[in-house]
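Predicting holo structure, flavin-adenine dinucleotide bound.
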Amino acid sequence: MSGSRSLSAVISRQTGVMRADVVVIGAGALGLSTALHCALRGRSVVIVERDTAGSAASGRAAGLFKSIQADELRTSLARSSIEKAISFGDWAGVPLEVARSGSFLIARTGRHKEFVRAEAGQSGGWGVHLREATAAELAGRVSYYRPSGDELAIWCPEDIYIEEPMSLVRAYLAACRRHGVEVLESESAVGVLVSGGRVTGIETAARQIGAWTVVDAAGAWARQVAGLAGGRVPVAPVRHQLLVTEPLPEVHPAGPITRVADAAVYLRPARGGLMFGGFEAAPLPVDPRSEPAAFRTSDVPLDLGVLRDLAGQVRAEAPLAAQAAVAEHRGGLFTMSPDGRFIIGPVPDVPGLWVASGCNGSGFSSSPALGEALACWIADGSAPGGAAALAPGRFGALTDDTLIERGIWQYAHYYDPVPPDQP
Ligand SMILES: Cc1cc2nc3c(=O)[nH]c(=O)nc-3n(C[C@H](O)[C@H](O)[C@H](O)COP(=O)(O)OP(=O)(O)OC[C@H]3O[C@@H](n4cnc5c(N)ncnc54)[C@H](O)[C@@H]3O)c2cc1C
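Done. Tokens:
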């Protein structure tokens, strides 16, 4: 079936059972985007969300979109997502405000300068607009950053951010409803129905929903949800935190994003102040499977000391990050994959079960293109534009220890990952 008009899920008068073409589990950025793109392809879609849309990782994101990526596929997904965020109103029919700020990618050590220069050269070859900037330009454009004059700074004019992450979640939700998607909040998937060797739907506490296609987009709970059908999704949830300062007259609200690769930190204007976040070398892994069933993202323990230590690494250049009063400190879980790449596609050995996960800290910003790729794959039966490389079946069996070890490595090397063709 194809077409531009979506169908609504139906409830059988005889049995009371709801039926749809596609059921998506989880209303974060990935689940919502996948649902929307399936609906745009004429599928009837139901989303079940245990709490409220955006209540886990997506509503806590920094909202940053980054055009420089470690490989060509991620670059194309990132750039397509930037275009889709900017033109959201045109294709989704709902307005979305985006800050077209551009960004600076900075390196201060010899090793990181070499890495960033190589990464920028490679990205330029894949079509990303960027160029080296002088310290004077950096100082002129970024009110909250004082260059030493010895750094490498790459100007990336395509980069954008979304001021409040919930605005993307709300835009997806409104677009989903506009295109006929049924969104069931406060409804947890407790079972995935399997019959005759394939998925036939899901079960919640309230009902059964029949569907030949079920998408596991349960974020940090993706492993458990896949496990309901005996499927395997190798992701390791790892804590990530950021802070937003009180409003500061020194921060120009229209200024760009700044990323300092050697310190593994990012900064941007936020709510009249500064947002600061970063990637510590030894992050906290959190496995919801070992937590009580009621465990939620709001239960992830936060530690401001981690951010203070990271801010100390850029104290000379961005003193406000370490000194200014904190208005908000938030955090949640990244779903790290062993190779740092997304995991989308059919779950091995469970026909009808698909996954959208393995965000590695970029799931919010890549959600527009990832959702589209997965919806195309589901509709056409073949992966579009190289997306087959992201299929969950690419991993062999991994122990939990290896999964966590690799996930932590990918997290700590967010700004200097090893390209996929290297060990
Ligand atoms: C502090 C922070 C900053 C970040 N900054 C950025 C950024 O700047 N840019 C970027 O691209 N990414 C960023 N990320 C990462 C980004 O937030 C994630 O990659 C993205 O939100 C993941 O979306 P998701 O839909 O996979 O997961 P989630 O948003 O976590 O959604 C999963 C949903 O599934 C639901 N669920 C779980 N189990 C069930 C069940 N059994 N039944 C029904 N529903 C269920 C959950 O309640 C949840 O709502 C950040 C993350 C954090 C924590």
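The first strand starts at residue 10 and ends at 11.
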